[in-house]
Design a protein that fits this description.
α1 packs parallel to α4 and α1 packs across α9. The longest helix has 19 residues. This protein has nine helices and 21 strands. Strands 5, 6, 7, 14, 15, 16, 17, 18 and 19 form a nine-stranded mixed β-sheet that branches. The protein has a six-stranded mixed β-sheet with strand order 9-2-1-13-21-20, with helices on one face. Strands 3-8-4 form a three-stranded antiparallel β-sheet, with helices on one face. By secondary structure, it is α+β, with helices and mostly antiparallel strands.
Length: about 425
């Protein structure tokens, strides 16, 4: 894939450490695998464990698509990170014979006239000030250019051409393959059982099946993996594996619907790009149809508290709002059959920000989790960011994701109806 994010934007050195250090990464999702690739490039001896298969079907990273956008309201830090990530997606596409990022643009619709303080207004103004070519919708655009939408429901909005979507499951496959090609030991079929702690420090992890480690050529002969550092990057499973984090992060489930629109070219870009329908108030967003004729719609909202390993079922009561939304906003989709449903897991933090830092009470343990439903787009910069934090190097974004006490709850600007699931 040619792992090459916009490292210069992080103002960091990539000099290899004089003595190789070892790290065990728990989890091969997007946080864990990007960190593994970057740390290996810096000279670390890297072992990644995951229950597998990678990509794991029940993990958040594994899906047909994720939004790639820079639209973050008035939040300068995430906007800046997203701009850097865009450069990374461009670089990954250039290095790949089959690009996985599709810059089809992002249509943001508002049920009211965009006004100061609103998500769409603040995103639009910030993008324009930063030199991005965001286009305010003109009267008639929804009747002509984007005719699938009921124009009477959305009188305002804008189109951001510097955005799109990524084939997320395939990205993870490529990154895992690249990690192994670079010398990362990826061990599948192994579950985390606990930390190895002694003399006030974490020295590794205990796992369930030593045979899988030996079969993968791992560095341990028993049910232990010892290393200088443990990086916990297990997504929605993180607060279950590390219960001391359960007060600041938890797993929530969010229904996703795949509609069968086979043969319907009107449901693809440019007529039907990635979209958000008054998202900060309603949570609704979705994608153009992929090559198989499947179109994905989801809701970036509160979700419901779940246990990550419990059965994943989208409830009938959760499907009813989808039908209502299609009826009022996208009537051409209301009679399309449902091809599949999925409960997408978020690892929510109490304030909606990522959680990437050293555990102050457990030297040797670093946590990289808390995607809060908006992490995948940052894949090209997550590895360098996490590696900088592991190595205690300066990084202009790290302060936002530091270890913190439970305080006032916040939210990511696009997310609707945010509340904690206590």
């Amino acid at each position: 894939m040619g792992y090459a994010g916009p490292a210069s934007r992080n103002a960091r050195s990539v000099a290899v450490a004089p003595e190789p250090r070892s790290i065990v990464v728990v989890g091969a999702g997007i946080f864990g695998i990007t960190a593994a690739v970057e740390l290996r490039a810096r000279g670390w001896i890297v072992t990644v464990i995951d229950p597998g298969p990678v990509p794991r079907p029940t993990a958040a990273s594994t899906d047909i698509s994720k939004v790639v956008r820079m639209d973050y309201g008035a939040d300068d830090l995430y906007t800046t990170m997203a701009e850097a990530a865009m450069e990374g997606w461009d670089g990954w596409n250039s290095a790949s014979a089959a690009p996985l990022y599709h810059q089809d643009g992002f249509l943001l619709l508002s049920r009211e006239a965009m006004a100061r303080g609103g998500f769409e207004y603040e995103s639009f103004e910030r993008l324009r000030r930063r030199g991005q070519a965001a286009e305010r919708l003109r009267p008639g655009d929804l009747n002509g250019r984007f005719s699938a939408w009921r124009a009477d429901q959305y009188p305002d909005g804008y189109f951001n051409p510097r955005a799109g979507w990524v084939e997320s499951g395939k990205v993870l496959e490529r990154l895992a393959a690249e990690a192994e090609a670079r010398g990362v030991t990826l061990i599948q079929g192994v579950r985390f059982e606990g930390l190895i702690e002694s003399r006030g420090r974490v020295h590794g992890i205990r796992v369930t099946d030593a045979r899988a480690i030996r079969a993968a050529g791992g560095p341990a002969a028993g049910p232990e993996l010892r290393a200088d550092v443990v990086l916990a990057a297990a997504g929605a499973w993180t607060p279950t594996l590390l219960p001391h984090l359960a007060d600041v992060m938890w797993a929530t489930g969010h229904p996703v619907v795949h509609l069968d629109v086979q043969g319907a070219g009107d449901w693809q870009a440019p007529r039907f790009p990635v979209w958000a329908a008054d998202i900060s108030r309603t949570g609704w967003y979705g994608f153009p149809a992929v090559a198989t004729g499947v179109l994905k719609i989801a809701r970036h909202g509160a979700g419901r508290r779940v246990e990550p390993d419990a059965p994943r079922t989208v409830r009938p009561a959760e499907l009813a709002p989808f039908h209502e939304f299609l009826q009022e906003s996208l009537p051409g989709l209301r009679d399309r059959p449902i091809a599949a449903t999925r409960l997408c897991l978020y690892c929510d933090t109490f304030d909606g920000d990522f959680w990437i830092d050293h555990d102050p009470d457990r030297p040797g343990l670093v946590v990289a989790a808390g995607d809060s439903g908006h992490g995948f787009k940052f894949a090209p910069v997550l590895g360098p960011l996490t590696a900088d934090i592991v190595e205690c190097r300066p990084n202009p974004w790290a302060h936002r994701f530091r270890w913190r006490r439970r305080a006032a709850e916040g939210k990511e600007a696009a997310r609707a109806m945010y509340r904690s699931a206590r």
